Amino acid sequence: MEMRAIIIGAGRGSRLMPTTADTPKCFAEVAGQRLLDWAVDAFRQNDIDDIAFIGGYRIESVRESNPEFTFRQNSDWPNNNILASLMYAEDLMDQPFVCCYSDVLFTPAIVEALLRSEADLALGVDSNWLVRYEQRTEHPSDDAEKVTVSDGVVTRIHREIPEAEAHGEFIGLAKFSTIGGAALCRQYHERRGQFAGQPYREAKTFEKAYLIHLLQDLIESEQRMEHVDTPGGYIEVDTQQDFEYAREFWTTRHLNR
After folding, report:
1. E-strand spans in the chain?
2. Based on the structure, what is the number of domains in the chain?
């Protein structure tokens, strides 16, 4: 069955101001291409041409530049977060898909490795993650979406995992089979029914939850979740400091891994 890509790009990215003053965060340019272009290129090199984009802030800019995408609009993006945003594309999860954050750089190689995984749910993980945090003062390692693993399986995904215990950092790129996607949707609706408008895990309300909150919930519900590692080959562009680092080092330090 054909693989689909879903890019989550509704938020404004206020920590990347002034770069995001008038354009979506994924339009920030690194080495002559927008973050969005790097993601699309990584997918297309792996024969994923069915690309959906979940937009909110300045979605019209993406519609104009990439009319070939399938679009879903998160009209409430100022009041929700990544998890709720992803679920605006729930109707597109009726087949295998990969999803990614729109503010990350990753290589075609990690996409290829994820596609080779036979797991119903697999996460891309930077196993060389601490190197990136040596000079990353504006986004410290305690804000990283860290994972612990055992025998190829993710056992925990949480920002509060101590550095010494973490196997790596979730890079915002995940693969779901049709069964894995159904498990994600089922868990989401069950938890929304329980926690809508109320605190959920570390989020002030369920609507403000991150994707990792539901992934951890799935782990605790005994959903098998494999990890597919990349030693580097990944940069999150969350702050202006990250942006400057990416512009200097993406093609020389990370892309060829």
Report:
1. 4-9, 29-30, 33-34, 50-55, 70-73, 97-101, 104-106, 121-126, 146-150, 153-158, 168-176, 226-230, 234-236
2. 1
Q: Label residue 12 by pLDDT band (50, 70, 90).
A: confident
CB contact set of 133 (below 8 Å; sequence gap of 6+)? 140, 141, 144
- Identify any residues that bridge with 5 across adjacent strands, giving them in sequence order: 51, 98
User: What are the helix (H) ranges across 108-210?
Assistant: 108-116, 129-132, 178-195
Residue 141 lies in domain: 4-254
Report the percentage of the chain scoring pLDDT > 90: 84
pLDDT tens for 241-254 read: 998 999 999 987 77
Cα gap 51→127, rounded to integer Å: 27
Cα 63 from chain centre: 20
Output the pTM of the full model.
0.96
Pairing mode, if any, of strands 168-176 and 97-101?
antiparallel
Q: What are phi and psi of 98, to 5 degrees?
A: -110, 145
CATH code assigned at 62: 3.90.550.10
> Minimum mean pLDDT among 51-55, 91-95, 240-244: which range?
240-244
